[in-house]
Structures are given as structure tokens and as C-alpha cells.
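[step 3/7] fold_predict: job queued, chain A
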Amino acid sequence: MSNPQATLEALRKALRSEPRVKLESHPIHLAFDGDDLVMEGEVADIAAKKLALERAASVHAGRGILDRLRVRPAERMADGQIRDLVCDALTAETSFANCAIRAWVKDRLEIVQQPQAPVGLIEVKVVDGVITLDGDVPGLVQKRLAGVLAWWVPGSRDIVNGLGVTPPEEDNDGAVTDAVRIALEKDPFVNAEQIRVSTRHSVVTLTGLVPTESEREMAEFDAWYIFGVDKVVNQITVRP
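[step 4/7] structure written:
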């Protein structure tokens, strides 16, 4: 790296150019660990996190980025409470009815759900508000849905979705679109029938009509929560 300070200044300029990152009120610490860029701080929401990473990647192209950005939670919660809410959401979801679910309680892995003939396994761990999902599920839809359910827990600050998929599935824009539609359909605060979804190169576009700005915003966040979505273009119109 020829001039680390010049690169850091270019990175800060790129972050300042994205208004949703809100760098003045939510500062991001930038540093280098060898050739890897380290990004650390608490951002306003999931959109700010992903946009900050996208802007950094555009400057630091071809090199590694260590993502230590956390999202400001809707409610501050203890890790145990977050873990229990994630497990409750997973066990209540019919898509995981046949899936074994376990949770790390301190240094012990406890059984939450154990079907007689389990199809898939999800292990839940929470440290400092960061939810890690490990194991294996039968499809990309389940992998993405588990991540969305974890994001919906008010205390979540980040999701590390390490779930594998067996048998392996080829990912594509259509699979992302399907996952966004499912998330919208399962969100009780969103009328999914009024929203259309399309995806191109991991960029999701939302169109349609909703009665309130809050519903428009919630629909957008549902799309941001999907694993593999790099950007969301929200063209939903608010019409009371």
C-alpha cells in the first residue's frame, strides 16, 4: 500500500458522500491491518452498514475488509434475552418445524428443538448483540429467512449467517427476489400484496403503493436484511 493516509482520506470522503451513513453522528473508525481495511463503529441501521461497506469496497477494491460495524439496536437487550427471542422466532416459524435448533448458553450448547427425524440444524450464539447462526439448512430460502428472523429481534446489532445449504443450491437474482417476497409476506406490518420486487446483480428494487411512510421504510429494511442483497432501490409510493 503506497500511501495509507491518502487511502484513509479517500475512504472517509467516500463515506461522507453517502448521506445514509451519517458519518458525523455515527462515526466509523478506519484503520489498516496489513492490507486489510478494518471498519469499526455503530451505524444507524442495516442500510447504513451495507452502504458503508459498499462505498469502502469501491475505494479499497480488490483488498480485504474486516467488518466490525454494528447496527444501533431498536432496544438494548442482554445477550440471553436476544438469544431466547431468536430461538422463539425460529421455533414458531413453520419452515423450521423439522429442523433441530440449539443455542449456546454461556459455554454450553443446549437443545431448543429436536424433531425425531431432523432435517437441518441451526445453532444460535449471541455475543454483545451479534447473533451468529451456524449449522446446515435444506435451502437458500431457509438460510435467508433465519437471518431475517434474527434481524427482527429488537436487540440485534449484527447477524453472522454461517448456515450452510444441503443439498447445495445455485444462488441467483431470482432466489434473492423470492426471499425478499417471503420476508415481506411474513412481516405483519407490511402488506406484501401491494409491493413488487425485482433483483438485478444483487440490487433489489421495490415498487408499489403503501399507505404510510413507516410501512415503506419497513419494506425497505426487510429487503436490506436479506443475505446477499448489496443495495435496495426503494421506489414505493406512499398514498394514504
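[step 5/7] annotate
The chain is about 35% helix and 30% strand.
The chain has three domains: 4-71, 79-165, 173-238.
exit 0
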